[in-house]
Amino acid sequence: MAALDDLREEIKRLEHDMRERLAAVDDGASLDAFRADFTGRKGRVSQLFKRLGRLDPSERSEAGRLLNALKKRASEAVALAETETRRERLAKRLGDERVDMSLPGVYSSFGHLHPLTLVQREIESIFMRMGFSVATGPEIETEYYNFDALNIPVEHPARADWDTFYVDESTLLRPHTSPVQIRVMEETEPPVRIICPGRCYRRDTQDATHSPVFHQIELLWVEEGLSLANLKYVLEIFTHEFFGEGYEMLFSGDYFPFTEPSVQVHIKAPGAADWLEIMGAGMVDPAVLEAVGYDTETYTGFAFGLGIERMAMLKYGIDDIRVFLTNDLRFIRQF
Ligand code: DAH
Question: What is the pTM of this model?
Answer without folding.
Answer: 0.69
